[in-house]
Design brief:
Layout lengths: L4 E2 L9 E6 L23 H15 L4 E2 L9 E3 L9 E4 L5 E6 L3 E7 L5 E6 L1 H6 L1 H6 L8 E5 L9 E3 H10 L7 E4 L3 E4 L1 H11 L3 E4 L14 H7 L9 E7 L2
Length: 247
């Protein structure tokens, strides 16, 4: 079975391996069709395990680290026992850092020397609470950091209430520029823009996929789209964004 994988377009060194999966090519049935990699979305366990096996065989994925994500600011080192986290980093060879998303931001990191990598899951709560700065804070080398923001919901489709906007603006008044007003005290939030602003302020060079999970529904799972369709509620699968140091 052929998988459809997305390769980041960024200036990572040759020693780095990274990709984002799509929903194409797996064993899951609707509404998780077909390459769901998450165990927590009520998909059949056998299908998810087969999808993970297929991913590992197709990509030679080394030592995958599957996290239990809780929209926290916890970032764990690959070699520790902690799995309740929303970010993972390592300096070791052939240790895969993985986050799963279906609208939230998947952010992959590496340094220019190729000696450190990380993967972070950032929904609006994690973004607000500082998951990206927390990830960058685990980096203690001199080489410049790079980040790639993978497929996520775009501003056009991400409507939030006034309370969400107020929290971001209270944190940093510059974030006001990333909210577009709609009738009824609703706002369209540019999570990618906020993430890029924060990362660049931390000295990170940022690259974007410019792909929207909501709009590109044939390739990507979207929790918000599933909610709007209502035929399956908010039930949908998850993609994985993966990074490791090959050599």
């Amino acid at each position: 079975m052929s998988l459809k994988l997305l390769q980041p377009s960024w200036n990572a060194p040759q020693s780095i391996r990274a990709f984002c999966t799509t929903r194409v090519g797996g064993f899951s049935r609707a509404p998780w069709d077909s390459f769901n990699l998450a165990l927590h979305v009520k998909d059949e366990l056998s299908a998810v395990n087969e999808n993970r096996r297929l991913l590992q065989e197709s990509t030679e994925l080394p030592n995958p680290r599957w996290l239990t994500q809780t929209h926290s600011t916890k970032v764990t080192e690959h070699s520790t026992g902690l799995i309740d986290a929303d970010g993972c980093f390592t300096t070791e060879l052939k240790k895969s850092c993985i986050v799963m998303t279906a609208d939230c931001l998947p952010v992959l990191f590496c340094n220019e020397e190729g000696s450190w990598v990380a993967a972070t899951h950032a929904g609006w709560r994690g973004l607000l609470d500082g998951i990206l700065s927390q990830t960058v804070g685990t980096y203690h080398q001199q080489s410049k950091l790079l980040a790639w923001i993978g497929p996520a919901i775009s501003q056009q489709y991400f409507e939030v209430g006034s309370e969400v906007r107020e929290k971001f603006v209270d944190k940093n008044s510059s974030f006001e520029a990333y909210f577009q007003a709609k009738p009824g005290q609703k706002w369209l939030c540019d999570m990618v823009g906020i993430a890029k602003y924060e990362l660049e302020a931390l000295g990170v060079e940022v690259f974007e996929s410019n792909l929207c999970t909501y709009h590109n529904h044939q390739d990507f799972f979207s929790h918000r789209r599933a909610t709007h369709q209502q035929d399956h509620g908010a039930t949908t699968g998850r993609m994985a964004s993966v990074i490791w140091i090959e050599q």
